[in-house]
Amino acid sequence: MKLHHVIEAQQFDVPTLSYLFKVTEKMEQLVARGGTSDYLSRIMATLFYEPSTRTRFSFETAMHRLGGRVISTENAAEFSSVAKGETLEDTIRILNGYVDVIVLRHYEVGAARRAAAVSRVPVINAGDGVGQHPTQALLDLYTIRKETGVVDGLRIAMVGDLAQGRTVRSLAYLLSKYKDVKMYFVAPPLLKMKDDILSHLRERKVGYTEETDLQKVLPEVNVVYQTRIQKERFGDRTADYERCRGVYILNQDSLKLMKPGAIIMHPLPRLDEITREVDEDSRAAYFRQAQNGLYVRMALLTMVLASEPSSRRR
Ligand code: CP
């Protein structure tokens, strides 16, 4: 099964997700054996206009584990010709002459779609502002399957910055494809889940509730998906940020309310919204979740690189 651009979570159907996760399991085994050199002739560009630890390093590690090569700019706004006024579209056109796949993180919603519109080679959205982060949602879903054994029938609490959180937006789209899922959106009033997602869930008849009392929700769910209140998204609205931060913190008392088989996830980075002592509990899945990002991104790369190398397509 081939993929071309990876732009948004809605583009994946359940058979494609099942296939991706089968390939992902093979990638876990491949990494355990030390990787492969099968993709020696393929080159990936990582073009990042926003900071990243997990997404950029895991994509780059994924390409190295497949035997491919990587060119990268971690601060494209400063260290590429964007600093001289070059457009995103022209940058993408130029990279098309050099590489086989482009992984793009950008601060503007829709940037990945704009890039894909002018790109012959696959563009992978590694986060577009407050829009989407589809590859994070894929690794989240893989983690949920692996850790809890269920997706149909899942009960999940999404907590924190739901209005500006691209990871929860993409995950809600993906989960809406499965049966009998119920989502509990727990957020301060200023950061409630946006109506485009809620309308999508209503159209698909997916169960959801909007909550403010996290303690009431914790005993109900299989997954608690905590997120950071993202200071960088508030701009000069510092009073709003202060009003929202610290409202929902997961600590040892939260663990006592959770089911024994439930897990805590977080896309990371975290600040104080999960206290450090929670890390010791086996239900704290967030570091395993980040590790899964490597395997899922290896699987995605094999699927988008299944077509001819760009050098032969010209
Ligand atoms: N989860 C995530 O996107 O992390 P980074 O910002 O470190 O890539």
Structural write-up:
The chain is an alpha/beta fold. It has 2 domains: 9-132 and 291-304, Aspartate/ornithine carbamoyltransferase (Rossmann fold, 3-Layer(aba) Sandwich); 134-289, Rossmann fold. It contains 13 helices and 9 strands. The radius of gyration is 19 Å and the shape is globular. Phosphoric acid mono(formamide)ester (CP) binds at residues 52-55, 127, 133, 136, 267-269.
Largest beta sheet: strand ordering: 7-6-5-8-9
- How many DSSP-defined strands? 9
The averaged pLDDT comes out at 95
Regions with little confidence, pLDDT below 50 for 5+ residues: none
Share in helix: 25-40%
Overall CATH architecture of the largest domain: 3-Layer(aba) Sandwich
* Class from secondary-structure proportions: alpha/beta
In DSSP terms, counting alpha (H) and pi (I) runs of 4 or more, how many helices? 13
Short description:
This protein is α/β, with parallel strands linked by helices. The chain is 40% helix and 14% strand. It has two domains: 9-132 and 291-304, Rossmann fold (3-Layer(aba) Sandwich); 134-289, Aspartate/ornithine carbamoyltransferase (Rossmann fold, 3-Layer(aba) Sandwich).
What descriptive keywords fit this protein?
14% strand, globular, four-stranded parallel sheet, 314 residues, Rossmann fold, binds phosphoric acid mono(formamide)ester, 2 domains, 9 strands, alpha/beta, five-stranded parallel sheet
